[in-house]
Design a protein that fits this description.
With about 500 residues, the chain is mainly alpha-helical. It is about 55% helix and about 5% strand. The strands form 4 sheets. Strands 4-6-7 form a 3-stranded antiparallel β-sheet. Strands 1-2 form a two-stranded parallel ribbon. The protein has a two-stranded antiparallel ribbon with strand order 3-5. The mean pLDDT is about 95.
Length: about 500
């Protein structure tokens, strides 16, 4: 199929997932994947007809695992599981997230360790191809025995229950499937369990948060470089020998990016002999702070890429030996830790950016007009924009509290430790939205500061950034509402408009 994503199970990379999240295409599974899927399904079919206890196949679930289910009730067991677990609440997840969940679920099932039949995977791919998106409430998962409640709402749509959205229109799932020409799925042994177990919701939310955090970091590096020039700061702290002796890769990479962005600045050349020995930390220590943020994002990216390509349901089927083994791959602790790391990075990206805004508006620190406007007093300029940035920093500090340190036992104490990965990941988009607004305020303030340094010019790289900003927002010559200006630049940040200013291979999902 032309213009489709060719899915080789276990081979989804970050760049592919980022592109597909923004521009979803039909998914075509590698034909070689069907053989291991079929072999695992045969093992489950044999187990379902035998008089042996196999969790979730011939037994109940959770604390009811000792209850035996006769062979003639196996299909009813799976359907009941899906219906009973659809107990989510709260606003619906965005369609782009649900589509990514479906892709990740298909990727996992197609590895051939879940024991589902072909029609399960084919139904997921058909729904992706025809734009039938399950309505999935965002709250109700503790990220332990899989994302049970949200995945149950997704699974309901496959069997013609619950609700879906098609082209933005919400309707009963049965109607959405009918319009798409898709037959509702009749679940076989273990198939409801395979759909419900798994970390795909937490992972999809965390991936979206990771990509948004990358966009914020890219824009913050650009804003930080522009602020250095606006503040008549030094580029000496970005020299590579300083960072080589410490050995922190993210720090060295950020220093290199900042040096490249400032290379050729006439503003910098104008004060090489000045008597300022050291700049404030928010300028001078950008490699150390933003490098640590970059390292956090890189680590989270590696964890999430592995999780997106792994098998996280239970029990697992090993067709080569005919074994069905119960384990705990559904426990989303790795995702929770990764999401908490992304949250810390987002909080610090915003915090450091706001400190640079505070420097820029302070005439005593910047040497620029107070609050970056002519006739300060008559005009207030960026005064309240900095207050807004401070408010958003404070909000992100609260949101950054680690979710993974919390645990509440569930299912009659059978599931006695949980990860809380789902809401750890879900908050990331709110944090990224806040961080993008903070960085947008800095970009505007730094561009204003650079304008006040005329006729001196900033570097060629930053002149291109300045032109991009001025195409959206004019110079602030007198007071006007700044909210529309901030919103325009925030939109640029969130759209990844500054990723191209960062060399390839720096951001986790960028090409190497």
């Amino acid at each position: 199929m032309e213009d489709a994503l060719a899915l080789t199970p276990g081979r989804l990379d970050l760049a592919t997932m980022r592109r597909w999240l923004a521009d979803p295409k039909p998914v075509v599974l590698d034909p070689a994947a069907w053989e291991p899927v079929d072999r695992a399904a045969e093992v489950i079919a044999a187990a379902a007809s035998a008089d042996l206890p196999v969790y979730g196949v011939t037994t109940g679930f959770g604390s009811l695992a000792r209850t035996r289910i006769p062979p003639d009730q196996v299909a009813t067991l799976q359907r009941n599981l899906v219906l009973s677990h659809a107990a989510g609440v709260g606003p619906l997840l965005d369609d782009d997230v649900v589509r990514l969940v479906m892709l990740l679920k298909a990727n996992s099932l197609a590895l051939g360790y879940s024991g589902v039949r072909r029609p399960v995977i084919e139904t997921l791919l058909a729904m992706l191809r025809t734009g039938v998106v399950p309505c999935v409430p965002s709250q109700g998962s503790v990220g332990a025995s899989g994302d049970l409640a949200p995945l149950a709402h997704l699974a309901m749509a496959l069997i013609g229950e619950g609700r879906v959205r098609v082209g933005g229109e919400e309707m009963p799932a049965a109607e959405g499937l009918r319009r798409a020409g898709i037959a509702p799925l009749a679940l076989g042994a273990k198939e409801g369990l395979a759909l419900l177990n798994g970390t795909q919701v937490s992972t999809a939310l965390a991936l979206r948060g990771l990509f948004a955090a990358e966009d914020c970091l890219a824009a913050a590096l650009v804003a930080g470089a522009l602020s250095v020039d606006a503040m008549l700061g030094s580029d000496a702290p970005f020299r590579p020998e300083i960072h080589a002796v410490r050995g922190q890769k993210g720090q060295a990479d950020v220093a290199r990016v900042l040096a490249l962005l400032l290379e050729g600045s006439a503003i910098r050349a104008s004060h090489l002999g000045c008597d300022r020995v050291q700049d404030p930390y928010s300028l001078r220590c950008q490699p150390q702070v933003m490098g640590a943020c970059l390292d956090q994002l890189r680590h989270a990216a590696a964890v999430l890429e592995a999780e997106a390509n792994g098998v996280s349901d239970n029990p697992l089927v090993f067709a080569a030996t005919g074994e069905v083994l119960s384990g705990g791959n559904f426990h989303a602790e790795p995702v929770a830790f990764a999401a908490d790391g992304i949250a810390l990075a987002l909080a610090e990206i915003g915090a450091l950016s706001e400190r640079r805004v505070a420097l820029l508006v302070d005439a005593n620190m910047s040497g620029l007009p107070a609050f970056l406007v002519a006739e300060p007093g008559l005009n207030s300029g960026f005064m309240i924009a900095q207050v807004t940035a401070a408010a958003l920093v404070a909000e992100n500090k609260l949101l950054a509290h680690p979710a993974s340190v919390d645990s509440l036992p569930t299912s009659a104490n059978q599931e006695d430790h949980v990860s809380m990965a789902t809401h750890a990941a879900r908050r990331l988009l709110d944090m990224a939205r806040n961080a993008a607004a903070i960085v947008a305020i800095e970009l505007l303030a730094a561009a204003q500061g650079v304008d006040f340094r005329r006729p001196l010019k900033t570097s060629p790289a930053l002149l291109r950034v300045h032109a991009r900003l001025r195409a959206e927002v004019p110079f602030l010559d007198r007071d006007r509402p700044l909210a529309p200006d901030i919103a325009r630049v925030q939109k640029l940040v969130r759209a990844g408009a500054f990723r191209g200013d960062i060399p390839d291979g720096v951001l986790p999902s960028a090409p190497v």
